[in-house]
Amino acid sequence: MLRDLLENASVVEIVATFVALALIVATILCLIFIIVGGITFILSAGNEEKIRKAVHTIRYSIIGLFVSFIAFFIVSFMARLLDIPFELNFSTIVDLMSEIFSSLSSN
Fold it and tell me: Residue 67: which domain range?
């Protein structure tokens, strides 16, 4: 999919794919930071500063995820408003993720 995209796709399709990749990366990073914040919270041993730091980590990772999804919806809305054929749906993102993970596992 990525090879075909880079060889035969238009600029709009390439931008849509990179937006999907950014959304995937933001989701994975959010998950990682939530896990790190949870582990920090568990290992804080009642220390108020560590608890506050862990809660801030979790809170800001969730806020970052919301901001990335809002940015995605704004880009989609602006593309529809300007009649740009920006077609990116959930199945495209899932296909892209499966291709990335299959290429990582084959190496």
Answer: 11-89
